[in-house]
C-alpha cells in the first residue's frame, strides 16, 4: 500500500482527478461533499486529501509516498528539494509564473541589469535598500544571488502583494501570476528577464517514505501509467 | 556538535595568539540583523540563523566575529591594536546539509594603518606558524590589484563605480565589462526610449507610462534616464585595458612570479603601479619573517566570491589532500568594510580565522 496525497479542494483537485483518470487510475471522493476522504479504484493506493501547501512537507517527512502540488511550493519550502523528492511527472495544469515586477512608470527599467543599477541608485538616494515584497523568499533570493543583483531587501507579503507598491511598503514585487491582469491593474510591469520559476502542478515522489517491495511494485505500475 | 577535543585545541590556539601579544576580546552571540544585512545584503539570510527579539527586533546568531570586533575597536580601541578571540559561529547550510552549522573559530585581527605590508605578513606568518604541525597548503591573492585596475580604467566615474560595486560578483562584473567594452548588444528599444525622452522630455514620458507608485519618484527615474543617455555616448573601454582586467582575473602562479607581469600590465594601466608596489612590499615583509614568496601560490583574484568583502591581501590554508573541505584557516584585509561600519571613518584592518574543528587530533 502506498499513500498518494492530492489537493483537497477546488480546480486543482478536479484537474488532478481528471489527470489520473485519463491515465487509467480512478480517484474517487467518498463520504459527503465536505468529508476529506477518498479512495483509488483498482490499485493498492490509499488517497490522502491535503491542502496543496501541506503536501511538500508531508512528502519531505515521508508521510506520503506520492503527492501532487505546485513545483513553486516544493522549491520554496524544501531545502535541496531534488535530493529529497523526485519529480515523477509534470501534469500540464496549474501553470503559474513567479515573476519580478516593477512600476510601469519606471520607463528606465526593463531588465535585471536595470533593476540592479536602480537598487544602487535607490540606496544612495533613499538611505535604505530597495524593497521587494514577496512570499517566495528562498526562490527570489536564490534567483537574485545567481543573477548578481545587490542592494535590495525582501519584505514579507503573504497576500495582496501587487498592492504593496501603491501602499508604500515596497518598491517592487515578486509574485505568482498566470495572466498578468492583477499586475497591470496595479500599475506594474514584468521585467523582460524576470521569470524566476515557471510553476505547474507536478507529481512528486518522496525518497524518504517507506519503500518496501510491495510499494516499489505499485510505484512501477504508476510509472507505467503516467509515462 | 563541537567536541571537547575541538574546544581544547581552540583554547590552546587562543593561548598562543595571546602569547604573541594579542588582546582577547569577546563578542555577543546574538547580533543585530540590521548591521549584517546592510553590510552583506539579503545573501546573508541564506548563511545566518535569524531570530526575533521582542524589544531589539531581528537578531542573527553570530555568523562571524569580524563585524563585532571592528565595532568594539572603533568604539574604544586605540591603534595599533591586536585582538584575539575564540567562540562559536553559526551558519545555515542550505546547499550542503552535511556541513557543520555550528563550529568554533579562533581569530586574530590587526588594526595598524602605519605598516600595512608588515601587518599582512604578520597575520599570515602567525597563523601559518600556529598551523605548521598540520602542514596545510597555503594560497594567497590580492583583490586590491583588481580594484586598483578598475579604478584606473579610462572611462566614466559611473562605470568605474558600477564595476567596483560588483568586484565580488563575477557574473555581474563580466556582464558590465561586456557592455562597457561593446561586446554585448545594446538593449533593444533602449535607443528608441532615449530618443523619445529627448524629443518629449523625461517627465512627459514617465507620466505617459503610468501613475507614480512607491517611493521611487519620477525625479529618480528622470535622473537615471539622464545617466543612461550620458552612458550611451560614452566610448567603449579599450581592448588593451579590458585585456589587463582579463589577465588579472586568470593570472595564477607564485607571489614573486606575479610581480614582473604586473609591472608590464602597469604600462597599459598606470594605476596598477601602486598596487604592484604594495604586493612587492608585502613579499619583502614575508621574506623578512622567513616565509618564501617565491614558492607561495598567488592569484590576484583569489577570494573574490568568499562574501567576506576582502579588498586587499587574502589567504587560505587548506588541509592537505582534502580539496572538498572548507579551508582550515582564511583571512585577509578588509579596509572597505571598516569604512562602511565607521560611516566614512576607515581603519586599515587585516585578520584571519582558524577552524579548529577541521584540524586532525594528532597532526
Automatic annotation (TrEMBL), chain A:
Record keywords, A-Z: Amino-acid biosynthesis, Glycosyltransferase, Histidine biosynthesis, Transferase
Residues annotated as transmembrane: none
Superkingdom to which the source organism belongs: Bacteria
PROSITE patterns given in the database record: ATP_P_PHORIBOSYLTR
Pfam families from the UniProt entry: HisG
InterPro entries, sorted: ATP_PRibTrfase_cat, ATP_PRibTrfase_CS, ATP_PRibTrfase_HisG
Pathway membership, UniProt: Amino-acid biosynthesis; L-histidine biosynthesis; L-histidine from 5-phospho-alpha-D-ribose 1-diphosphate: step 1/9
EC code(s) of this entry: 2.4.2.17
MF terms (GO), sorted A to Z: glycosyltransferase activity
Reactions mediated catalytically: 1-(5-phospho-beta-D-ribosyl)-ATP + diphosphate = 5-phospho-alpha-D-ribose 1-diphosphate + ATP
Chain ranges of the ATP phosphoribosyltransferase catalytic domain: 52-211
Function as written in the Swiss-Prot or TrEMBL entry: Catalyzes the condensation of ATP and 5-phosphoribose 1-diphosphate to form N'-(5'-phosphoribosyl)-ATP (PR-ATP). Has a crucial role in the pathway because the rate of histidine biosynthesis seems to be controlled primarily by regulation of HisG enzymatic activity.
Cross-referenced PANTHER family: ATP PHOSPHORIBOSYLTRANSFERASE (PTHR21403:SF8), ATP PHOSPHORIBOSYLTRANSFERASE ATP-PRTASE (PTHR21403)
Protein's UniProt name: ATP phosphoribosyltransferase
TrEMBL record, chain B:
Keyword vocabulary terms for this entry: Glycosyltransferase, Transferase
GO molecular function: glycosyltransferase activity
Chain ranges of the Aminoacyl-transfer RNA synthetases class-II family profile domain: 17-347
Subunit (UniProt): Homodimer.
Pfam family, one: tRNA-synt_His
Species of provenance: Jannaschia pagri
Domain of life, per lineage: Bacteria
Identification of the protein by name: Histidine--tRNA ligase
Amino acid at each position: 500500500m502506498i499513500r498518494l496525497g492530492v489537493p483537497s479542494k477546488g480546480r486543482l483537485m478536479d484537474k488532478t482527478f481528471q489527470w489520473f483518470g485519463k491515465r487509467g487510475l480512478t480517484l474517487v471522493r467518498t463520504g459527503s461533499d465536505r468529508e476529506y476522504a477518498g479512495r483509488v479504484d483498482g490499485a493498492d493506493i490509499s488517497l490522502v486529501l491535503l491542502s496543496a501547501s501541506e503536501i511538500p512537507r508531508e512528502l519531505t517527512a515521508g508521510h506520503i509516498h506520492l503527492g501532487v502540488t505546485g513545483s513553486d511550493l516544493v522549491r520554496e519550502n524544501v531545502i535541496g528539494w531534488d535530493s529529497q523528492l523526485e519529480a515523477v511527472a509534470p501534469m500540464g495544469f496549474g501553470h503559474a509564473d513567479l515573476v519580478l515586477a516593477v512600476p510601469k512608470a519606471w520607463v528606465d527599467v526593463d531588465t535585471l541589469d536595470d533593476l540592479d543599477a536602480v537598487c544602487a541608485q535607490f540606496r544612495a538616494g533613499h538611505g535604505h535598500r530597495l524593497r521587494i515584497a514577496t512570499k517566495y523568499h528562498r526562490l527570489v533570493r536564490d534567483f537574485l544571488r545567481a543573477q548578481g543583483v545587490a542592494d535590495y531587501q525582501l519584505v514579507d507579503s503573504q497576500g495582496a502583494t501587487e498592492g504593496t507598491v501603491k501602499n508604500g511598503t515596497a518598491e517592487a514585487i515578486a509574485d505568482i501570476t498566470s495572466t498578468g491582469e492583477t499586475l497591470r491593474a496595479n500599475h506594474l510591469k514584468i521585467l523582460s528577464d524576470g521569470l524566476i520559476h515557471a510553476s505547474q502542478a507536478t507529481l512528486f515522489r518522496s525518497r524518504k517514505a517507506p519503500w518496501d517491495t510491495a510499494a516499489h511494485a505499485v510505484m512501477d505500475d504508476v510509472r507505467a501509467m503516467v509515462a | 556538535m563541537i567536541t571537547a577535543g575541538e574546544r581544547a585545541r581552540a583554547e590552546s590556539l587562543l593561548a598562543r595568539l595571546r602569547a604573541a601579544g594579542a588582546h582577547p576580546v569577546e563578542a555577543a552571540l546574538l547580533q543585530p540583523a540590521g548591521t549584517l544585512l546592510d553590510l552583506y545584503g539579503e545573501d546573508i539570510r541564506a548563511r545566518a540563523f535569524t531570530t526575533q527579539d521582542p524589544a531589539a527586533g531581528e537578531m542573527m546568531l553570530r555568523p562571524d566575529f569580524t563585524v563585532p570586533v571592528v565595532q568594539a575597536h572603533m568604539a574604544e580601541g586605540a591603534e595599533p591594536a591586536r585582538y584575539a578571540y575564540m567562540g562559536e559561529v553559526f551558519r545555515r547550510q542550505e546547499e550542503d546539509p552535511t556541513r557543520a552549522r555550528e563550529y568554533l573559530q579562533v581569530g586574530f585581527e590587526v588594526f595598524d594603518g602605519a605598516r600595512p605590508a608588515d601587518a599582512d605578513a604578520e597575520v599570515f606568518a602567525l597563523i601559518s606558524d600556529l598551523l605548521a604541525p598540520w602542514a596545510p597548503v597555503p594560497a594567497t591573492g590580492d583583490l586590491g590589484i583588481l580594484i586598483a585596475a578598475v579604478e584606473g580604467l579610462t572611462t566614466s566615474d559611473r562605470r568605474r563605480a558600477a564595476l567596483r560595486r560588483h568586484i565580488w560578483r563575477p557574473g555581474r562584473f563580466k556582464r558590465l565589462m561586456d557592455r562597457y567594452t561593446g561586446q554585448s548588444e545594446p538593449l533593444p528599444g533602449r535607443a528608441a526610449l532615449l530618443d523619445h525622452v529627448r524629443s518629449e522630455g523625461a517627465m512627459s514620458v514617465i507620466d505617459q507610462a503610468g501613475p507614480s507608485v512607491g517611493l521611487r519618484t519620477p525625479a529618480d527615474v528622470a535622473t537615471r534616464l539622464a545617466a543612461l543617455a550620458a552612458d550611451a555616448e560614452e566610448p567603449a573601454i579599450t581592448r588593451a585595458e579590458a585585456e589587463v582586467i582579463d589577465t588579472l582575473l586568470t593570472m595564477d602562479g607564485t607571489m614573486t612570479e606575479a610581480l614582473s607581469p604586473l609591472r608590464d600590465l602597469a604600462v597599459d594601466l598606470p594605476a596598477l603601479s601602486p598596487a604592484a608596489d604594495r604586493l612587492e612590499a608585502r613579499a619583502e615583509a614575508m621574506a623578512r619573517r622567513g616565509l618564501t614568496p617565491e614558492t607561495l601560490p598567488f592569484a590576484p583574484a583569489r577570494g573574490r566570491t568568499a562574501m567576506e568583502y576582502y579588498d586587499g591581501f587574502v589567504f587560505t590554508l587548506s588541509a592537505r589532500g582534502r580539496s572538498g573541505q572548507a579551508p582550515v584557516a582564511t583571512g585577509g584585509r578588509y579596509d572597505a568594510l571598516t569604512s562602511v561600519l565607521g560611516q566614512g571613518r576607515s581603519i586599515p584592518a587585516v585578520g584571519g580565522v582558524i577552524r579548529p574543528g577541521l584540524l586532525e587530533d594528532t597532526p
